[in-house]
Amino acid sequence: MAAALIPRFDVDGAMRESLLPLCRLKAGEIWEDLFSGHRVGVIDATDASGMKALFGDLKAALVINDPPYNIAVGNRPTKALFSNGIETYIDFCKRWLRAVLSVMSSDSFLCIWTGADQTKGFQPLSDLMIMLRDFAELETRSFITMRNQRGYGTQKNWMFVRQELLCYSFGSPNFTVAYTEIPKILKGYYKSVAGKRMENMERSKSDTIRPGNVWVDIQQVFYRMEENVPGAYAQKPLEAIERIIRSSSSAGHCVADMFSHSGTTLLSAEMTKRRCVTCDIDPIFAELTIRRLEHFRKTGRTGWQQKSPFPEIDSL
Ligand SMILES: C[S@@+](CC[C@H](N)C(=O)[O-])C[C@H]1O[C@@H](n2cnc3c(N)ncnc32)[C@H](O)[C@@H]1O
User: Fold this and answer.
1) Best substitution site from 54, 227, 281, 304 to test ligand 1's pocket, by max atoms within 8 Å of Cβ?
2) Alpha carbon 34 to chain centroid distance?
3) What CATH class does 3-179+217-299 carry?
4) The pTM is what?
5) Distance from the CA of 79 to the center of ligand 1, in angstroms?
6) Left (φ > 0), alpha (ψ -120 to 50) or beta: where does 37 sit?
7) How many angstroms separate the CA atoms of 202 and 190, rounded?
8) At what angle do helices 48-55 and 86-101 cross, to 10 degrees?
9) With a 6 A CB cut-off, is 232 part of the ligand 1 pocket?
10) Could you give the CA distance from residue 150 to residue 163 in angstroms, rounded to a whole number?
11) Among 6, 197, 304, 305, which residue has the least CB neighbours within 10 Å?
């Protein structure tokens, strides 16, 4: 079945019935990778004792969390998080923040993906930012906007093309400057370099351009890309996660993600020689995370593009 036809694994009831028996982990269970020591669990991110079991003695130098936040595309559990207004959602975030802080090392970074719904008071971003001020141990570092290539709502409003990333530090972790081949959007001005007139566009080919806190150079994942994971509905681009990992941790460090989904953080950690500790509340996404790592090691491919990650099921 083509990727476009593979249903979302979180919402299709019949599909879930077929996939659950193929999942090697049940609620509360943890898988440990024999080669790089990565760990994957089926654990609720708000469960502090589950988090303790997942980490053991390990501490995370970097946490990249991407909790559900898009109510428009969310499943039933996501919608329930907003059922009593933003308060339920903020309470959910407080609970996972407390659990996460207990496993962060004394010098570490915490990055949180979120969104601002312009039809609903720019939630959850606005309340989330204010609530995070209650965590005095976290220092604000960056507020990054990543531009999507595809947008929506073009007829009666400005096209919506953004995803938000909030970055905090705990203690004094090291930050490594990232460089990119970011394309210049504005022609801007010219400058003389060694007597030759150089246009802004030519100079932008330098490899010393920093992405800054507005990322316009990262391709959103879509079904034709190799890294596409059919059945996952909220996959972040590997390039974005790799940029965060390289700038905010070092080789050998432990990188964590409590909302694993398609396993993007685990795969980026493997590719950048970090150790990843991750979990998802849904056994199907925990299984997908482990399979993505195994698939990469076996084939060198970062996803399944349009093929099924569960070839055992004929009907997929
Ligand atoms: C937005 S997706 C994460 C996408 C991920 N960054 C990626 O690139 O694939 C959110 C994930 O959080 C999981 N989730 C929802 N509530 C959770 C909870 N309380 N604890 C752990 N995982 C949860 C969902 O099952 C879903 O897979």
Assistant:
1) 281
2) 24
3) alpha beta
4) 0.93
5) 13
6) left
7) 9
8) 30
9) yes
10) 12
11) 197
Which amino acid belongs to residue 7? P
pLDDT score of 205: 56
Q: Cβ(249) to ligand 1 under 6 A?
A: no
Nearest 5°: phi and psi at 86?
-65, -20
Return the domain boundaries, the chain: 3-179+217-299, 181-210
Q: Are 15 and 288 in contact (CB under 8 A)?
A: no
Distance (Å, whole) CA 279 – CA 30? 8
Q: Is 111 in the pocket of ligand 1 (CB under 6 A)?
A: no
Pair 149, 219: CB distance under 8 Å = yes
> What spacing in Å lies between the alpha carbon of 282 and ligand 1's midpoint?
8
**Closest C-alpha to 137, from 173, 113, 165, 87:** 173
Q: Say if CB 107 and CB 59 are below 8 A apart.
A: no
In tens, the pLDDT along 244-302 reads 999 999 999 999 999 999 999 999 999 999 999 999 999 999 999 999 999 999 999 99
Structure tokens at 180: 């990119």
Token pair belonging to 192: 């003389």
- Return the ∠ at Cα 236 (arms to 311 and 287), rounded to 5°: 35
Task: Give me the amino acid identity at 33.
Answer: D
Give the residue carrying structure tokens 């760990």.
Answer: 39
